[in-house]
Model the fold of this input.
Amino acid sequence: MSIVHHPKLGMIECVRSLRARSIRLAVRRDATLRLTYPLFTLRSTAINFAERKIAWIEATRRRIAERNNNTPILTRDDIERLRREARCTLPPLVERLAREHGFQYSALSISSAHTRWGSCSGKNSISLSLYIMTLPEHLREFIILHELCHTRHHNHSAAFHALLDSCVCGKEKLLNKELRSYHIPATPGE
Done:
């Protein structure tokens, strides 16, 4: 990994990767760039790729700035309160929804993930971010049902969406749209 200070793009973290098959560009929450590229690609080629994406980078940075302005910053005390609430509230909620909809899962964990509200492993272990507690209850239930549906369909196929839609009385698209207006809150040090 190397850091490049580009005159127009600012700081770029350049990462050469064994697994990368193509050049990937990401804008981080702090507006810096991460450029990941295959071993056989020159860094200058990857930077040229980023330079051709200036319009996309600027638009993405504007969206991130707007999101950051609309996203509350939580204190460490807030996070601990959410963690306690999540540990008390989520296990019985997941159990109830699983029972009501006929799902089975192998385990439940509560994490402090900042990149996603929840996930389901190939072994049907569900993980939920404690930040799910910042959402309205109906969206918490939607996320949990989403992860429970992954215990039957470990993908986002048409069958998965049909199952999820049936679990939420035909409101999957509406709930997804509403969920997109929420973001995992910023925490100290971000």
User: Anything to note?
Assistant: The chain is about 45% helix and 20% strand.
